[in-house]
Amino acid sequence: MAIELVPGVYWVGVVDWTLRDFHGYSTEAGSTYNAYLIVDDKVTLIDTVKEGFVGEMLDRIGEIVDPRKITYIVSNHVEMDHSGSLAEVVDLVKPEKIFCSPQGKVGLSRHYKAAWPFEEVKTGSELSLGRYTLAFLETPMLHWPDSMMTYLKEEQVLFSSDAFGAHFAASARFDDELPYNYWYELKKYYANILLPFGPLVTKLLKQVEDLGLSFKVIAPDHGLIYRKHIGKVLDSYRRWAAAEVDPKALVIYDTMWHSTEMLAESFVQGLMDAGVEVQLHHLRTSHYSDILAELLEAGLFLLGSPTLNNGIFPSVGEFLTYLKGLKPKNKAAAAFGSYGWSGQAVGIITEELKNMGLTIPHEGFRVKYIPDPEELKDAKALGEKLAREHLPEK
Ligand code: FEO
């Protein structure tokens, strides 16, 4: 059923209940592709849905108005989870105009190879629909070059594209009664999609303040629509963009014959003795996108790998590649691991962590073959020391 956000403005998106993988990001809670319909003199559709869901979206629009009455389409973002059904919609409704950013025009043209009636908009451009006015705000690299947001001035609704979104399937459309796991999914989305762009998020929040924009509703392209917890969502983004961290540490590892695992468990003991929040993640049982969600607010992590064929474990390499791309900031990190004869893994990890610009308070903890009780005691002591020296007070 279409859901009304404010008079004449409707959610007409779809819920993707069974999605479990979004280009490598694990989506255990499914997702939503939110599209919005504004019924005014110019009937306007803001974004579409992923390919394959167009029928459901058009049915939802049809509950309110004949889809062929749509005059304008606003495309806030080129990525295919929002533009994937655009071609079918354009064929059906034959819109007068498709409003998008200059990079949006480039991206949509490259994706769909069609001569559509694009109209480029920039920050500050406005569009009258009749009783309502849309204002556009370009947000390049949040998180694609084409990204922009659309603001419905009279009702103070921000159509925020991917920003403030979460991969989350639910019968609820609004944040009034948040399901218990929603904040985790919001955090996970930021950590896996927006983390590299923290300075741009900070700039955007400042721009919103400078423009004096206030919001009664924030309507992202994924997850719930906010009308109750807007302050909390904005404050979470401010905090994450500033890379603020908690007294929290993660121990992340893979292991061959449990030696590196024994070290990991000793580090956990030491960190717990320091009184900080600790999590232990085995790289073959925790998905890297979940580890990133937990790492977002952690000020310290230890990454362990045995040496395998003079190098690091493949799962550790995969994690490091993913982590490097997300450009984490304001964290201390150290490597550890067991080895049999050559022992390069700890050095390789330490170098990678240094190259990411993280604080490296220790050159790495290595143990030959099986750790003895004294070495486990040393690992525990090092965990406690790192927590006391590199994490904020509670
Ligand atoms: Fe939800 Fe960047 O697409």
- Read across the widest sheet, the strand sequence of neighbours is 1-2-7-8-9-10-11
* Contiguous runs where pLDDT drops below 50 for at least 5 residues: none
The class by helix and strand makeup works out as: alpha/beta
Strand content: 15-25%
Bound molecules: MU-OXO-diiron
For the biggest sheet, the summary is:
7 strands, mixed
Please estimate the helix content: 25-40%
Shape: elongated
Q: How many helical elements?
A: 12
Mean pLDDT: 97
Please give the radius of gyration in angstroms. Answer: 24 Å
> What is the terminal separation in angstroms?
46 Å
- Could you state the oligomeric state of the chains shown? single chain
Number of strands: 21
Describe the protein's topology.
Elements: E1 3-6, E2 9-11, E3 14-16, E4 21-22, E5 25-26, E6 31-33, E7 36-38, E8 43-46, H1 54-62, E9 70-74, H2 80-83, H3 86-93, E10 97-100, H4 102-112, E11 118-120, E12 126-128, E13 133-138, E14 148-152, E15 157-161, H5 182-194, H6 198-210, E16 217-220, H7 230-241, E17 246-253, H8 259-273, E18 277-282, H9 288-295, E19 298-304, H10 314-326, E20 332-339, H11 345-355, E21 365-368, H12 373-390
Helix pairs in contact: 5-9, 6-7, 8-12
Bound molecules: MU-OXO-diiron.
